[in-house]
Every structure is written in C-alpha cells, then in structure tokens.
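Researcher: Quick one. two chains, 588 residues in total.
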Amino acid sequence: MQKTAFPIGAVLRYFAIALYVLFALFPIYWLVKIAVTPDRLIYTEGTQIWPSNFTLDNFVSVLFLTDFLVYFKNSMIVSLGTAFFTTLVATAAGYAFSRFHFRGKTIIIALMLITQMFPLLMIIAPIYKIMAGLRLLDSLTGLIIVYTAFNVPFATFLMQGFFDGIPKDLEEAAMIDGCTRFEALRKVIFPLTLPGLAATLGFIFTAAWSELLFALMLINSDAKMTFPVGLKTFVSKFAVDWGQMMAAGTLALIPSCLFFILIQRFLVKGLTAGAVKG
Amino acid sequence: MTMALPTSPGNGRGRPLKRFQWLVEPYLYLSPAIILIALVILVPLVVGVSYAFQAIDLLNPFETGWVGFANFEKLWADRLFWKALTNTFWWTLGSLFFQFFLGLGLALLLNKPFAGRGLVQGLVFLPWAVPAFLSGLNWAWLFNPIIGPIPHWLAALGIMEKPQNILANPELALWGPIVANVWFGIPFFAITLLAALQSIPRDLYEAAAIDGASVWQSFIKITVPFLAPTIAITVMLRTIWIANFADLIYIMTGGGPANSTNIISSYIFTTAFRRLDFAYASTLAIALLVLLLAYAMLILQMRKHLVKGI
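Model:
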C-alpha cells in the first residue's frame, strides 16, 4: 500500500473528496436557493450564487395554499406500502432462489432480468387496460400493486444475495431441532437478514417516492395524486412556478434523505451482496 | 437435474408428505412474485409485443389490424431510428463511462478511513435520492445562461466564447443530460464498488508490498481482479437502465434540438404520446429489447470467464 501518508498525498485526497462533495451538493444547493429567493428576484438574480433577499414565502404557500400535503400523504402511503409489500414478496422469492434447486429456476431468473430491459412505456397501455378491468384505476392500491411488481425483480436479486451470505447449516440445525422450515426462516434467518431488509426497504422506498410515469397514467383525481405528479402541476403550459416547485421539491427530499441516511450503513453491504450473486 | 437433491431434509426418511413439501415448497415461496410479475409485467409485455405486428394508430382509427412485419420494414428505413440508435449508444457510453470511473474513484477515496468519512458518505450519495423529474428541471436551469451559472463559469474559464446554452446547440446538447445523469449515477457505482473493495482481504496487499510491488501493480493484480465480477454485473444493470432512461432527456431537451438528443426510449415516448402511434412505439421498444438482451448475454458470458479466472 501507499507509503505513510505524505502531506501532499493527503492534501490531494482531501481536495478530491471536496470536489466530489461540491459536485454532489451544488445542484441540491441550487434547488434550495431558488426556493428561498423572492419571486421578483428569481430571474434577475438567477445567476447569482446567493440571492440579495431571502424568503420562506414559497414554503408557506406550498404547505398551506396548495394540495401539497395531500400529495405528500398519498406518496407516503404508496411508498411505504410498496416498500413493505415488495420486500415481503422479494424476500420469499430471494429465499427460494438461494435455498432451493428446482425446475424452471433459470427461466424464472431470465424472465426477471427481461423485465428490466424495455421502456415501461411499451406496456403502459396494456397495464392501463388490466387495471381498468380490475377497477384499480385512480386508486392508491392499484399504484402499490404496479410498483410492487416492477420493483420485485431487482429486490429479489438483492435479497438472494443476502440469503446466499447466510450459512445453510443454521437453519438446518434449527430444523433438526424440530422447527419447520418456515419457523426456522422466521426465528433464525429473519433476524440475520435485518440489514438486508432495511437496505431493500430503503431502496424501494426511494424508487416509489420518485416514480412519475405510472402515477401520471393511472391516477387522475386530485385527491389521489402522488407527489411527483403534484410537482408537475407547478409546470403549466405557459409558465413554471419555479419558487413553489423548488420549495415543494426541497420539502419532498426530506423523507427520502431521512430514509437514505437511516439505511446508509446497511445499503452498502446490501447492494454488493445482491450485485455479486445476482 | 431432478428436484430431489440428496441434501433435502426428510428425503431419506421417505415420508411422502415431507417429500411432497420439498417438491412444492420453492414454488410456494416464489408464487407471489411470479403471479405479480406475470400479471402486471409479462402479460402486458406480450400484448405490447403484439402491437408491433399491428397497425394501432389512434389518429387513423379505421386502419387497424395485423400487418405482419410492416412496422419492422418501416423501422429499417426510418432515418430517425438510426439517428436515435447512434444517440442511444453515445448517451449510454458517455453516461456509463463517467459514472463508472468517477464512482470507482470515489469508492477508492472512501475505502480508506479519514476524519468525517461518515458525513462525506452521506452527502455524496444524496443525488441518488433526487427524483429524475426534479433534477432534470434543475439542471436545465443551471445550464441556462439567463438564469443559471454554468455557462458563465465556462465563459470565464475560456472554454466557451460567450455564455451560451449548450442544450440549444445540436453539437453539444447531449452533454447536458449526460452531465445530469453522471451526477445522478455516481453514487450507485460508488456504493457497489466500495462494498466490493471492503471485502478484499487486507493481507493480500501486505504480501504484495513485501514482495516489492508498486501501488499500481497491486491495484492491477489484486484490486481489479477482485472487483471484476461486481463490475461486470453492475455495469450490465446500469447499461440496461441508462439505455432505457429517457426522463432526463425528455425534460431537459425533449429530444431536440433537431433530434440531436433523441435516444430510442425518448423517441418511443414521442411516438406513443405525441403521434399516438402505439404500434410503432412497440416496434422501437422491441428493437431496443433485442439489443439489450444480446448485450446482457455477452456480459454474462464474459462474467463467467472472469469468475472462473479467479
């Protein structure tokens, strides 16, 4: 490895790290900056790094004068629901992939890979028809079902990686002691995969939180809109209400970020485990 | 391959119930996933594929029906398709190249402990959490010379003669969404590669150092081979996702100016929603699907060799 850190090397390292942090944060800073700039200065002081005046009006009007809180609540329901059900279904599937050899396994894995390979647009019309047939249009339940289906393949590969990392002897020992396989899964394996479950939950939560296309197609009443669709209402045909939109966007980043920071530690382990073995 | 493996519990005891359980159990665990994916993705996919062999143009409702391979002949002769294919190639390659190497660089930096590492990790991974719609609008703003700072910086640095919007310049427009996409995607590679780096046994490096290997030599001989399987699978997944990822392009440039940023998946979007030609949109999607399948098979084959090589 490197000879004991000479100062120049250390300085360069910190410089590189600072560049990365700057690159990652600057656009997010810009979002917040537009949100706190008074409307009349948004364009005139557009290129300035720091606005000459500062206001929270945009946040106030987003919170109290628009339906933002409704969108926010709907997004919360959909994202949490999707994260929960996807993780449940993907855990079972990942467990089967990890612990059993069975007929058709390769085909099922191949089909799951194929689900990642085409633009969702191609199947939006048929999905619309199916959801209409099931009377699940304009319903949060319908949205949760669709999101769950689309997130299950990736989540399954992720969970399979975690299960692969847990020695089989553990549950076999439990089964010899008289547990059924399901009991062994619940009592022995489940606690060990908690980090993996957290990672999967977080990953799916962020994905569902920011999904726009399906939400746009399958939801049409104001009361059922999710946050990204609501965000789009700030963009009208003629003008964009930048201040309010960026304020709403900033507010909407908060739960995503909280979730992200919470799962940070687990996520690192989770993704590779899935990626390597997937 | 039979389903009853020698290790199956209860197999030796020969109790029919247990054996039945062993046969059925994996499908039980898989059934929710299979039913859900079949109903919501695979059935619509088959329907979607069938569109490509029909004429479904909402603007010409009376000219519908099966048309065989007519849509594919049209595709072959469509200059916009070939243009979009070329753009898809550069979009995917450009985004992937910078996401990967910058992500790898970040992972290497974060691999060694330093003061404040946890905080830095948290901050640099934030872009992955911003919805694409929002980051597209935000980057479009940043690139706009009237209201955004980037063109002025480029002009001040002498890279640009005077502040211009690169999104309006057919020669450069694709770089706008690529920069936004690189910003968004670095965290993915940083996370995966960091985790892989941390699983490399430390003593390998020490042994190499004792044998007089340089930093570069141990990077090439130890780090790269250990990362290779992870790299293969993440590069494959990201390639597929990026090639399909039209959000940023659609929001920042809408495929323009003069189709200079139109990739296949944004072309599909405009074909379906502006021209309401769902049959041709499906044909385009199938072309993309076939290309990505071929690519995935190639990568999986390569990965097999790499994994064997270790």
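Chain A has two domains: 1-55, 67-277.
Researcher: Thanks, that's what I needed.
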